Amino acid sequence: MNKNIRRTLISLAVAGVTMMALPGTAAAAGKITIMVGGITKMVYLPAKLAEQLGYFKEEGLDVELQSQPAGVDAENELLAGAVQAVVGFYDHSIDLQSKGKEITAIVIFGQVPGEVELVSTKASASIKSMADVKGKTLGVTGLGSSTNFLTQYLASRHGITSKEYSVLPVGADNTFIAAMKQGRIDAGMTTEPTVSQMLKTGEAKVLVDMRSVDGTVKALGGLYPASSLYVQRNWLNGHKDDAAKLARAFVKTLKFIKTHSATEIADKMPKDYYGNNKALYVQALENSLPMYSADGKMPVGGPETVLSVLSGFNPNVKGKHIDLSKTYTNEFVNLVK
Fold first, then answer.
1. How many angstroms from the chain centroid is the CA of residue 299?
2. DSSP β-ladder status, 137-140 and 115-120
3. Is 253 helix (H, G, I), strand (E, B) or coil?
4. Looking at residues 74-89, what average pLDDT do you find?
5. CA dist., res. 250 & res. 46, Å (int)
6. What pTM was computed for the model?
7. Of 224, 230, 260, 258, whose CA–CA distance to 243 is shortest?
8. What is the pLDDT of residues 45-58, one digit of tens each?
9. How far apart are CA 199 and CA 280, in angstroms?
10. Cα(first)–Cα(last) distance of the chain, in Å?
11. Is there a contact between 90 and 40 (Cβ–Cβ < 8 Å)?
């Protein structure tokens, strides 16, 4: 698609303008395009792994995976109708409902965010916790992204408002690493395998660790369902058979993750995912395994925790009635035996 047309579609959709799809914007008949908010991030590993294992084809699905550097960019592609589904954080479903847009998560990949707030080793003397971020520059994947949401919340727990520090969108992987190396950010939120890379080189230290249940409960007060597959409600209503097949493919993938070692999982991934350091990739994956759901279902109490977090700082959500039952469904994962 012409980039200018795509950009126009996205801006109109985000603004809430209803329009007819322009010629050529619809997916080919039977094809499902899934936009991933950073396809190499381990929080979204089930997307590529499902493709690698052949589970989409087993379900008779023609799936194309595309990637955007941040979940908020993937979300915009969905709202524009450029893709049929997104692999991104569940919290966008709540945020978007507050703006009058109906997005529903149909498979939960991660029962916790899998995110880590890293502090540059150079800045670690003055930043010992999120209570010390006043006047600092914090890296996030994108403005309006889940990393931005979580950063604001973690600071707000210490009484620090978003006006008291700077936020810089730096993406993930190599762009995040470069931003921290160059001193453009003092601390930032990222995922594996970037976390393990920076810890190994000694360029960063862990400030807040949300890769495990214990770490997430400590930071956020409860389970925080995060990486997920979500779609627009109107698409879901007209494509329940496709939704069921997608759910089946992803639940099979989650079961594969739970029944295989990090090394066995890494062996299924493309070589360019781990480059010349497969051992580091395997270690990063080992660190990430606890975050994955075993069955794709929404954890009990999870939506309430996410709503509580967003209500703590997000003016779009705070004080508004959010119907959590419309932000997710277990209907399709419950069909998987």
1. 16
2. unpaired
3. helix
4. 92
5. 7
6. 0.86
7. 230
8. 999 999 999 999 99
9. 11
10. 39
11. no
